[in-house]
Each structure stands twice: as C-alpha cells, then as structure tokens.
Amino acid sequence: MCAGLWALGLWSYRDGIGRLAAQGRTDLNLYMAHLQGLLAKYEPLPELLATNPRLIDFMRAPGGQESIQALNRYLETINRISDATDTYLMDAEGLTIAASNWQAERPFVGRNFSFRPYFRDAMGGQLGRYFALGTTSKQRGYYFAYPVHEKGEILGAVVVKIDISEAERRWAKTDRIFLVTDPDGVVFVSTQPEQRFRTLFPLDEAARQRIAHSNRYLDATLSPMGLEILKRLPEGQLVRLESEQGWRKHRRYLLQSRAMPNAGWQVHELSDTREVIRDTLKLTTLAAALAATAALIAALLLQHQRARRVHTILTERARASLERINLELEERVTTRTAELTRTNRRLLAEVDERLRAEQALREAQQALIQSAKLATLGQMSAGINHELNQPLAAIRTYADNGRLLLAKGRTQEVELNLEQILALTERMAKIGSQLKLFARKTSGDLIALPLAPVVEGAARIAAPILDRCGGTLESRVPSELSVKANDVLLQQVLVNLLGNACQAIDGQTERRIRIEAHRTQDWVITTVEDTGPGIPESDLNLIFEPFFTTKDAGEGLGLGLAISARIAAEMGGSLATVPLESGACFELRLPAADIHPSQAT
Ligand code: ADP
C-alpha cells in the first residue's frame, strides 16, 4: 500500500509540476510580451529624436543659454509626453548638454556619462541599450541611446531612460516571481524587491571586478540570492530558494527561463511548488485515508468473517460437547438406572428374603413355642407322673395294707392307712390344682394372674433338671404380686430362665438359684439369679439374638432367650440381664395387675 501511495504521490507531483510548468510557460510568455512591449514603446524614440533637425542644429551650434534652455524644455516636453524617466542629449564626448530634468535637484546637464556602454554603442553608430542604476538619480533605468548623425558624422547621442519598475508592480504575485537578469546573472528586475541586485548564482571575481568597473550597479553588493538547483526537468529546473518570508527558511520553485536576445536579458519565472506539494499531499492523504478506510472496512469484514467462523466453530464445538455430555449423561443414566434397577431388584430380593426369613423365624418361633409347649407338657407330664405315681403307689400300698389289716381286724391301723391315703389324695388334688393352671387357655391372651403359682409351677417343671445338677432353688415371690400376662407363656419364660440357670450352675462348686419378685409402681419385676459363671461382657448384646448359643450342639439351640424376650415384649414387658459381681441375673419386667383376693385361685 505504501508503494502504491508513493507512486500516486509521485504521479500527482509530476502532474502538478507539469501543470505548473505549462502555466509558467504561459505566464512567462505574457511577461516577456509585456517587457518587449514596454521596451518597444520607447525603442524608436531616441532615433526619432536623433533625426530631429533642431537637435542636430543644436549639436552643431549649441548657442547661448537661451537656446540650451529651449532644448531642455523641448526634451522635458517630449519626456513628459512619452512618459519616459529622463530624456537627454550627449555630445560626442559623453557630456550631457541638455536634459529633460534640467530643473531637477540633480540635473544630468553637465555630467559626463561616456563610461556607459550605451553611449559607446551609440557613438559606434548603433542603438545602445543598457540597464543600470543611475549614478545621479540612484534609480534603476533602462537606457536607449541613438547617435545624432549629420552627413555621416556622429555628433553625439540622444538617450531615453525609462523606468521599468512597472514591470514589477503589476506582476507581483504571491506564488510567482518574475526576474530579469543581465548576462552576468545579476537580477535587476524582480517582483520580489529583496532579490534586486542580487545574483542567481555566485559571481566569480573577474565578473565582479568588471561590473564594479562599469559602475553599472554602483556599490550594490551583488550577493547570491541562495538558489540551489535540485533537479533539472524537461520543463525547467526544480530549485530551492532561501526565503526570508514566512516561517520556512527555504522554498521550492520551478525555475523557467527564456532569453530576450534584443535586450540581452534572461527572463525567469519562479513558480512556487507549494500548491503542487499541497495538492499532492492532499491527494495522497485522501488516497491514504481511502485506502485506510478500505483497509479498515476490509479488516472489519475479515474480522466479522473470522468472528462468524469462530462463532460457528464454537457453536459447533459447544453443540458437539453438549451432544457428548448428553450422550455421556444418557449412558450414565442408563448405567445408573441399570445399577439402581439391579440394586432395587437386589433390595427387593433382600426384602423378600427378609420377609421370608421373618416368616420362617415367626414360623420357627411358633413351632418352637409349640415345641416348647410340648416340651413343657412333656416335662410337666414327667413331673405329674413323678408326683402322682409316688402317692398313687403309696395309696395302693396303703390300700393293700389296709385290706390286709382290715382282714386281720386291725381297724385302727386301717384308719391310719386311710388317713395316709386321704393325705396323699389331698396332695394329688393339689397337683391337680396346679394342672388347672395349664388347663387355662394358652392362646396368648393376657390376663391378670398371681405370680407366685406360676413361679411355683415353673420350679416344679424345672425340678428334675435342678435335681440332676444338684442345685438348690430359693424362691421369694410375695403371694400378693399379680401380673398381666399369659400364664403358659410366662411359665415357659420362667422354665427357660430356670433351665439356663440350671445349666449354668452345673459343675459349679456353689449351685444356687434364686427367684425374687417385687413391685415398682406399674411393674412387677422378677429376677432369676444364679451362681453360675455369668455372661461375658462381649456376649451381653448377643444372647438375645436368635440362635446365639455358647452351648454344645444338642444342648442348646440359642432360641430360649430370643423367644423369651419376644414373649415378654408381647406381654407388654421386657427381659434383660442385670450386671452382677459373679453369676448371672435376668430381670423379667411385666405390667403389674391388681387382683381381688377372691379371684386368686
Ligand atoms: P441356649 O440355652 O439354647 O443356648 P438361650 O437363648 O437360652 O439358648 O441362651 C443363650 C445363651 O445365653 C446361652 O448359650 C448362654 O451362653 C447364655 N446364658 C443364658 N442363661 C445363662 C445363665 N444363667 N448363665 C450364663 N449364661 C447364660
């Protein structure tokens, strides 16, 4: 882009310079035409005057003061009419004999200008032209001189000096400078006043001496105007000129020059390139701005496109990752669901298993209760058998003996025997009354019943086992204590506790079992304590678990305490161990019942 701008700038600059040069050419032509017109206006005047017989006569015979004054006046009139600066007449020696400015402060009359080249030219018989700074007037002027002839003899010269400052005033422009230089390059006309009597280029010493000698520019310094050629172009020269105007020390101009051979002049025009540079800069800046805008728009479009691409990619990625996450989620959900289904199935299976186990346990418990009932019945029947057989055998013996004694007439002894039989039947009746306890319904219904008979019955059932281990049972159950319970089940619990106690004391040195009961407000607490080895701390939490047993196979199923505890709970009470120093103690807590004495049977 920079190269393009550079090329555009260069093209614009060259084009601008081309246009500037074309304009310059036109201006220069016009200016030269003006100068030529100016000179042409005065050029024939000296010749015209020189042919005037009055002047020739005067030259021949100047006459007195009056004649001179008359000529002076004549020249003054001519000068005024022609609008020249000065018009004067010189003799063959170069002495001014009459002049239009004869009345001026410093008139030319009487002064000798033979050193002027125009005089020499005129005396040589030709039109003399010269530009110089007037030695008397100190004013610039262009001199035309023409010889005054008579019969082939040159008597003197008529000189017309014109002011050419008009060629400066009317042509002064800000962006153009018109210069006229002499063959040495000294600027004697310039639309820029400070450039007057300066040189285009430095003068060499010889030229300087020559000019000084001719007194052409009096004591003007003729310093160079600080022109530097930068580039030569077909249209002219690109120069840099020292400037005293404005803030810039240098200005660039296009220098175009043309010769005016008649006058021996070089006419120059310096066209300021500022406008060209400004236009070039404007164009380049505009182009740069356009290019920058285009680049910006392109960049924005690109950015937009890129952003869209990025957006699309991101959206695509987001969609893909969402899909992936979704898939993963679905997979996880599926896996999790499968796991949960499996777990659920397993749990359901476990629940089923538990339910089945519970059912089995319940059935087992029922069966065990049943078998425990049967066992109790068995034990009971053994006990009844034992208890009834003995009195029965005794009764038979007493009856047999009574019959023998009756036959022998020993009636007194028969009566004794009969008394014994009565006592024995009473005892049997007592056993019967005990059996009544079992005759009550065993459906599990809870009734208020006295505790002592149940304990007694249980003790009776457990008696054979107690006997086998050689232990003693001490029972301290107050007769007034009643509980709300099921007698069979309660007895079963007690038989069970006594059975365990018997097994515990078996083999111990001290073999005692104690059953005690007392009431605390709403509860009746029965404790069964033994002198056995006690229950290890570690087993305390386990003994009520079903099938927990420390006994050998065949001796225990580990169900006694579990069933007993459940029975106690079902009766609204509880069964627990009581810590003891030695031995074991179980505490059966049952709801207390208040029974009227008449109800106790
Ligand atoms: P089983 O008597 O068939 O083992 P139980 O449920 O009646 O089942 O008793 C569980 C366990 O409790 C027994 O194996 C025993 O270790 C312990 N146990 C029960 N009663 C006593 C006791 N009076 N003294 C010491 N240990 C006992």
Task: Note the main attributes of this structure.
Beta-Lactamase, five-stranded antiparallel sheet, alpha+beta, 18 strands, kinase, dCache_1, six-stranded antiparallel sheet, 601 residues, binds adenosine-5'-diphosphate, transmembrane helix, nucleotide-binding, 12 helices, HisK_dim/P_sf, Heat Shock Protein 90, 3 domains, rod-shaped
How would you describe this protein?
The chain is an alpha+beta fold and 601 residues long. It folds into three domains: 148 residues, 2-Layer Sandwich (Beta-Lactamase); 119 residues, 2-Layer Sandwich (Beta-Lactamase); 159 residues, 2-Layer Sandwich (Heat Shock Protein 90). Helix content is 51%, strand content 20%. The chain has twelve helices and 18 strands. The chain has a six-stranded antiparallel β-sheet. Helix 8 crosses helix 11. The radius of gyration is 82 Å and the shape is rod-shaped. The protein starts with a helix and ends in a 10-residue tail after the last strand. About 2% of the residues have low confidence. Adenosine-5'-diphosphate (ADP) binds next to helix 11 and helix 12. The site of adenosine-5'-diphosphate (ADP) has 19 residues, from helix 11 and helix 12. It comes from Thiorhodococcus drewsii AZ1. It catalyses: ATP + protein L-histidine = ADP + protein N-phospho-L-histidine. It is an enzyme of class 2 (transferase). Its EC number is 2.7.13.3.
